[in-house]
Design goal:
This protein is α+β, with helices and mostly antiparallel strands. It is built from 9 helices and 12 strands. It folds into 3 domains: 149 residues, 2-Layer Sandwich (Beta-Lactamase), CATH 3.30.450; 87 residues; 146 residues, Heat Shock Protein 90 (2-Layer Sandwich).
């Protein structure tokens, strides 16, 4: 199953988009509502001041300045001296009549603009710096200017509380948007993930896997339907390929086996003479080589396309390496090559013992083949970060730089190795087996000094079980 990558997950990006969308919408809505509430409350204050200004204008004409003093005192006591003031001034700015303004710093009152004929609204920052006052300056009659001031502390407290709850609402919308976005994204991507899992299973060789249509939505359901049809077609093609391979194997191996049998029988009869017997022996050897080449080629093809399932079992890498090492000791001794090993005990892995043994044997046989007498070949085993690695190092002729990218290709043989026996299929088979187990094989080589082939596998096989 593909690993979850938070940086590349489309579902996470979609969830974050939903969260951002909800956050922007809610923040914009709350900001708009806040401005409307703020404007509305301020307009109510202004309207109240204008209405009071009209009342005082009528009272001034009716009761005069003496009556206004008691009127102003009553208003100041009703609203509170710290929250309200009222006064009347002449054109020169001299106070004609005023409420108790002792709670209002004179320096603040002196800053009030009393110029102009139309009613004017202004702000005063109160000494506590937590709130402001709204002030109306308007002409009363021809010679007097009326000033009304009212503290906005209650309005500021209300707006401050409104902002606090607005932040809570925005944060809640972000959280809710993230959760809803994640749920919607997961639902939208569930079909894609199902296709991905099934595709991974098919890539692993299980061509019977299909995606269940679970009502993901029309677009995803169409994708699932198309994918299932494609998988069925691929399975059919693989079955046809299996049959073709079987036919090829039968059609080629059977005649070769008969030719080999005839040549071997003729050689055993002794009627062919010395030269005839040698020719018959050569025919037998060539038939054996061709049969082995055909078998190896078919093994590679079937392993690569997943038609050969792995017989998974617990495999001890150290024991496997020692068995192969022991198998080739006599070969190394005959060639005068020093064969050594560094094989510590490591964690057991899941794998196909026979195939892994064949792959490691191919690597070791290859090293001995291209290493001259008095050379050295070393088999080693390492374990790191959930993976194990077999390495075969030799002091042979090495691989030319131009040959290095092609050595795992089928039938490829470098110019310096064409005189040696072989078909050019051994390394291709090693790579096919390694990849079937979810691993890989690599090579490092210095021309004229030797090579190191390393087969690395995960501890838990990721290949095709049989």
């Amino acid at each position: 199953m593909p690993r979850f990558n938070s940086r590349r997950s489309f579902a996470l990006k979609l969830a974050l988009f939903y969260a951002l969308f909800f956050g922007v919408i809610s923040a914009g809505g709350v900001a708009l509502l806040y401005n409307l509430v703020r404007t509305h409350t301020l307009s109510e204050v202004d309207q109240e001041l204008l209405e009071r200004k009209e009342e005082i204008g009528l009272a001034a004409a009716r009761i005069g300045l003496a009556g206004l003093r008691s009127e102003f005192s009553a208003d100041s006591e009703a609203f509170g001296r710290q929250d309200y003031f009222i006064r009347m001034l002449d054109r020169s700015g001299n106070i004609l009549v005023s409420s108790d303004t002792s709670a209002w710093p004179p320096a603040l009152l002196a800053k009030i603009d009393i110029s102009g004929d139309d009613p004017q609204f202004s702000y005063l920052r109160l000494p506590d710096a937590r709130s402001k006052a709204r002030v109306l300056s308007a002409r009363i009659g021809d010679d007097a200017i009326l000033q009304l001031g009212i503290s906005l502390e209650d309005n500021e407290n209300f707006l401050r509380l409104f902002r606090r709850y607005a932040l809570i609402i925005v944060f809640s919308m972000l959280t809710l948007g993230t959760l809803i976005g994640w749920a919607l994204a997961r639902k939208a991507m569930a079909g894609v993930e199902a296709v991905t899992r099934t595709a991974a299973g098919i890539a692993g060789g299980n061509f019977a896997h299909r995606v269940e249509a679970a009502g993901y939505g029309r677009e995803i359901d169409d994708l699932v339907s198309t994918f299932n049809r494609m998988a069925s077609r691929v399975q059919s093609l693989m079955e046809q390929m299996r049959q073709v391979n079987d036919n090829i194997a039968h059609d080629l191996r059977s005649p070769l086996t008969r030719i080999r049998g005839l040549a071997e029988g003729a050689a055993m009869n002794g009627d062919l003479g010395h030269d005839g017997i040698e020719l018959a022996g050569s025919i037998v050897e060539e038939c054996d080589r061709l049969i082995q080449m055909i078998n190896t080629m078919l093994d590679i093809s079937e392993t690569e396309v997943g038609m050969q399932g792995l017989r998974l079992e617990a495999v001890e890498p150290a024991r496997l390496a020692r068995d192969v090492f022991d198998l080739f000791q006599d070969v190394a001794l005959d060639k005068g090559i020093h064969l050594s090993a560094d094989i510590p005990s490591v964690t057991a892995i899941q794998g196909d013992r026979r195939k892994l043994q064949r792959a490691l044997a191919n690597l070791l046989d290859n090293a001995l083949k291209y290493t001259p007498s008095d050379g050295e070949v070393k088999v080693s085993l390492t374990e790191d970060a959930g993976r194990i690695a077999w390495a075969v190092q030799d002091t042979g002729q090495g691989i030319a730089p131009e040959d290095l990218p092609h050595i795992f290709e089928r039938f490829y043989r470098g110019d310096r190795s064409r005189h040696l026996a072989g078909s050019g299929l051994g390394l291709s088979l090693v790579r096919a087996i390694a990849r079937a187990h979810g691993g890989e094989v690599s090579v490092e080589s210095r021309f004229g000094q030797g090579s190191v082939f390393t087969m690395t596998l995960p501890k838990q096989a990721e290949g095709r079980a049989h």
